[in-house]
Amino acid sequence: MFERFTAEAKAALVEAQDVAIDLGSTYITPAHLFYGCAQGRESTAGEPLRDNGITGESILKVVPRSERAREPEVDLDALRAIGIDYDRVKSAVDETFGEGALESSPDRRVRAASGRRPPFTNEAKRSLELSLRVALELHDRRIRPGHLLLALLRLDDQSISRVVEQQGASVAGLSATVLQRLDA
Length: 184
What we know:
mainly alpha; 0% strand
């Protein structure tokens, strides 16, 4: 099925995978896919989301961090021995980049080296299947990001609905806009 995805739709899937890894998740969820759509710069998904105030940042406020996110492996004694005050560095990083920035992102190289990518949850798989159905309903042979976004909006996922509503948009209105963009 992935051969039907356009380069832009594949990029949305890669964004979803990256954010899942960054958040320490062991699965790719519909909310991660929604994030991937929002990060796109094309007209069928990214632009309609941004036009409604929905950004990757607003989505991340709703997507939970995994409780399995790794703590940094820091040898405090070794750092002190060479004159580095870890607590001071951590405070400066938190102040500059936001609380928890130093610990928030697991090292992608470890995941890549193991060759394992997080699998899709059943709901995320369902959204990928729905995106194919949406594309076929619209007589498209390829799956574009807008098709994926419409599928996600049809899922009735609570995280996605919450983000849409928090931005003052509606699922129906957003779906109508995406359909117009796909038709253009």
